[in-house]
Amino acid sequence: MLIEKTAWPQNKTCAAMISVNLDAEFFGKIYYPDVNVDEGDIQRLGRTSLRYGLPKLLEVLDRYEVKATFFIPGAVVKRYPEAVASIVSRGHEIGCHGNNHEILAHMTADEQREALMEARELLTEAAGKAPLGFRMPEGEISEETLTIAKELGFTYSSSLSDGRGRRRQRDRHGPCGGLRRALRAGNFRAVGAAHPLGAVRPALLCVHL
Questions:
Q1: pLDDT at 117 over 80
Q2: How far is it, in rounded angstroms, from Cα 107 to Cα 142?
């Protein structure tokens, strides 16, 4: 149930959460799940985004003293360790965005667990501590995936929107009907999809790099 009025610290009138999907060349899998990310324009665009786009974004965040959460696939951590280190050194949070930007719903439970375990280990090594946040790399989220994520130590999911974004959850019970069912898998906090579940509803801005 919504609370009509929320009191923000220091008499602020609203809140915003900044998140970044650091996909690099794996962004191509959003549109073509079987694409080879090691060749052609997709590879060049991915490398360019990290070489030029990421430093500019980090500079802006530094300038305005804003901290963000970067959701990163495990494969990106392996390919661009220096880029991930530059994020961590500035005090930003890093979360799990799958391992190879796979569609977890198309995988068996054992395959999902193996992929998320590898990604979690890579992120833990990069950040010096285990990631708490999880964001689906692609496809619809399922109760099975959330159960596995919770088993692996993730404490919140930032995988769904309120029905107006690309991650819209289609369900006969409304835009968040599927979310309610999936969250039965465990005591997860839902970030960016909280309006039927929580007291506050901050704006969520997501950037793709």
A1: yes
A2: 11
For residue 51, give the DSSP letter: I
pLDDT tens-digit series, residues 25-78: 888 887 777 888 888 888 888 889 899 999 999 999 999 999 999 999 999 999
Cα 194 to Cα 3, 16, 67, 183: the distances in Å are 12, 13, 21, 11
Q: What is the pLDDT of residue 39?
A: 85
| Helix runs in 8-53, H state only | 28-31, 40-48
Q: Whole-angstrom Cα distance, residue 4 to residue 47?
A: 45
As given in the structure block, the two tokens for residue 54 are 């990421």
- Specify the DSSP class assigned to residue 153: T
Evaluate whether 123 touches 74 at the Cβ level (below 8 Å): yes
Q: Using CA atoms, how far apart are residues 20 and 71, in angstroms rounded to an integer? A: 6
**pLDDT tier at 144 (50, 70, 90 boundaries)?**
very high
pTM flag (> 0.90): no
* Six token digits for residue 197: 């579940």
Say which residues have a Cβ less than 8 Å from residue 83's Cβ, sequence separation at least 6. 22, 50, 54, 76
Confidence of residue 182 (pLDDT cuts 50, 70, 90): very low
Of 146, 99, 156, give the one whose Cα is nearest residue 122: 99
